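Memo to structure team: turn this sequence into structure tokens by end of day. - J.P.
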Amino acid sequence: MAQPTQGRTRPHQGDLVQAQLAAFAAPVPIVDIGVNLVDHSFQSDLPKVLARAAAANVRALLVTGTCERTSKAAAKLVDTHAAPDQPLLYFTAGVHPHNAKQCTSDTLKDLRRLASHPRCVAIGECGLDFNRNFSPPDVQEKWFEQQVVLAKELRKPLFLHCRDAGVRFAEILQRHAPLPAPAVVHCFTGSADELRAFLALDMYIGITGWICDDRPERGGAELAALLPSIPRDRLMIETDAPYLVPRTIKPSKARPGRNEPALLPHVLQAAAAALGVTPEELGRSSTDVACRVFGLPPAELGLAADPR
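Reply from structure team:
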């Protein structure tokens, strides 16, 4: 553990994560389908973050694009940080509903260009967020639908965001059903009714550290109760780092303030407990789903090729 320095009373973020690795490395290769690695909080120690992910048996990371700038940065990151001893890196290209008001006539051109990158595996993060309305709802809907149309044209998967907008979200996707490629509702925290609607549209579900949150007002227990309703071949796991640090890390003084991919085994363990299966079983199935949905190479993740 690093020694405290002047003005710092707790270990470095990375030291706290490193302390988790011995007990919480995944028992099988797993995939983090959503991590905001271009966030400024990773600028100073990204190589170490990637090394810790590899040590935790997180074999592939999907770097999330949330606007034109971050999508371009994600493309650059996967090009410049590829190395044989770290996780495989891929990215998504899209505009988050919070950033929809920034879209211009060039936005779709940029996304189309980024989507041609061999490691771009989805259009997104896109969708609707009527909880905070950082962009007006009508603007969100316009640019969400245009990204759905783009994904259909390119036959790319969709990486989706939905918060307090389930009805309109499902209506827009229903207009374009059936989609030619999978659609993934990332960081699902919705209701049972929303889950049923999304599954009826053949969508996949991503679960984050939200399930690790034991505060009653946050709904982690409700989310855990819904997991058995998700078919195993529709379920994947993610960190959404640097957000949603797993609160199953106890005591609180041992919990980092920044989430990172090396902590994905905590999500795996909590989700497996909610399903009544072993982390190994859920790890295998969630990784298999991620490979099929995003076209990841099983052999390079240390898995046997799917005979299907």
